[in-house]
Amino acid sequence: MVERIRKRDTRALEEAIDAYGLALKALVTRILSGRGSAEDAEECVSDAFLAAWHDIDKYDGQRGSFRTWLYTIAKYKALDKRRQISRLTNAASLQEDTHIAGASAEQQAMSSETERELIDLIRKFGEPDRSLFWLRYFYYEELEQLAQLFGLTKKAVENRLYRCRVALRQALHMTEKGDGVNEE
């Protein structure tokens, strides 16, 4: 099938869609987890097959099966869509909350400042902790995949992520205390 797709055989692409379409849709639907519509899931699956068609030369059978490669493409399409939906939802929610609750500009600025602080703290993590943290909590990567990617055990990944969370909590708590001390 892969060789036929490389030769631009559209029948081979149709066969791939028939063989893997439902499984990819199930994966995408789980990732979107109720945030997106059925049309969003269909769009992600279509985008995944389109990307596979255009990028078939990037597929390396030595690194994994064609099925796994398609799953990976679909997963990242779904994660991108999830982030897009979340941004739109969060922006709408923030506007609504601001309008309804009358949140002050000061409260909004403090929230943005905390977010920037958090990102700055994550960027200061050493490797592989920084990459593990981003991949797990911003890209929803599975622990098993992270362990395999970084050559660690699942338990080692869990421990590293736990230490990262503790470090963030402590750093943010110290910043809050530090702010109060500076005001005295």
Automatic annotation (TrEMBL):
InterPro entries noted in UniProt: RNA_pol_sigma-70-like, RNA_pol_sigma-70_dom, RNA_pol_sigma70_r2, RNA_pol_sigma_r2, RNA_pol_sigma_r3/r4-like, WH-like_DNA-bd_sf
Transmembrane segments: none
Boundaries of every RNA polymerase sigma-70 region domain copy: 17-87
Keyword set, alphabetical order: DNA-binding, Sigma factor, Transcription, Transcription regulation
Coiled-coil ranges per UniProt: none
Family per record: Belongs to the sigma-70 factor family. ECF subfamily.
The protein, known as: ECF RNA polymerase sigma factor SigW
Gene symbol of the encoding locus: sigW_8
